[in-house]
Design brief:
Blueprint lengths: L2 H7 L2 E5 L10 H10 L4 E4 L8 H11 L2 E12 L2 E8 L5 H27 L6 H5 L9 H10 L6 H9 L14 H10 L3 E4 L8 H8 L5 E6 L4 H14 L2 E5 L17
Parallel strand pairs: 1-2, 2-3, 5-6, 6-7
Antiparallel strand pairs: 3-4, 4-5
Helix pairs in contact: 2-3, 6-7
């Protein structure tokens, strides 16, 4: 897999989420949607799991789309959440063990969050949440949907604003690797490690520090990046000799597959 060649050829989206993590469409549905947009190459990059890859690749064969096996790992650096995209990964015993540990912690975290809601008088159960979690990963959006369904909030954004966002009454820190651990985990699995949506870090000094680590690339195109952001990250990529990538970070119908403002 040659990411540079994929970028040069165009018609790609290298940041897509499915029901294996916190997306609302199954891996095969995401592939079909990409095909309908005329996209040639995609990467399935679910949070801390590779569960959806096999289904996506099978669908890719049907729809004539190249599916790059990927992942998005959450790491922590200087109090900032640093997400790392991994491309071209293989399932290894090391990767499986770490992902299992992350999954177990996420499950325990979800139970703690559910209890916090109950303690505030908003009674929800694990069964309520699992109706929205179709894969192995239980994420905060699944809990937020259960809260809305029970009538405790008007929409999921309100749940995050009042209860689930960082520092809010029902928030609970999730286990994170450090960036170097995340990079090595991806590279040891035969993949390439790319810094995801750097604008969301809100600190170019930290981005510069991260670029000193053995990242393979940086995501310069993203739906939250404006043209000035993209131009700035291209310069950073050139300075540190990193690959450039991009994707829609698709989760639901509020996002559009293949639409992230890239200009080759």
């Amino acid at each position: 897999m040659d990411i540079k060649k994929v970028i040069e050829e165009g018609n790609f989206d290298l940041h897509l989420h499915t029901t294996a993590s916190d997306g609302i469409y199954s891996p095969s549905e995401v592939v079909k949607k990409a095909a309908e947009k005329g996209i040639k190459t995609i990467a399935i990059t679910d949070h801390d799991t590779i569960e959806g890859i096999t289904e996506a690749k099978q669908a890719g064969n049907i729809f004539g789309i190249t599916v790059i096996p990927g992942i998005e790992l959450s790491t922590k650096y200087k109090g900032k959440t640093i997400d790392i995209l991994g491309y071209g990964i293989n399932e290894t015993s090391e990767l499986s063990k770490v992902l299992e540990r992350l999954r177990d912690h996420r499950q325990n975290r979800s139970e703690i969050i559910i209890k916090k809601f109950c303690d505030l008088g908003m009674t929800i159960t694990s069964s309520d949440v699992r109706k929205y979690s179709k894969g192995e990963v239980i994420a905060r959006p699944h809990i937020a949907k259960a809260v809305v369904e029970k009538g405790y909030a008007k929409d999921t954004q309100e749940v995050f604003d009042l209860y689930l966002g960082d520092g809010k009454p029902c928030s609970e820190e999730k286990m994170k690797l450090n960036p170097l651990e995340g990079i090595k985990l991806i590279q040891n699995a035969g993949g390439q490690a790319v810094l995801a949506h750097p604008k969301l870090i809100h600190d170019d000094k930290i981005i510069a520090e991260l670029m000193e680590l053995p990242f393979d690339g940086i995501e310069v195109w993203h739906r939250k990046h404006g043209k000035n952001d993209t131009d700035r990250y291209k310069k950073i990529a050139a300075k540190y000799l990193k690959l450039i990538t991009g994707g829609s970070d698709f989760h639901n119908e509020e996002h559009s597959i293949g639409d992230f403002g890239y200009d080759l």
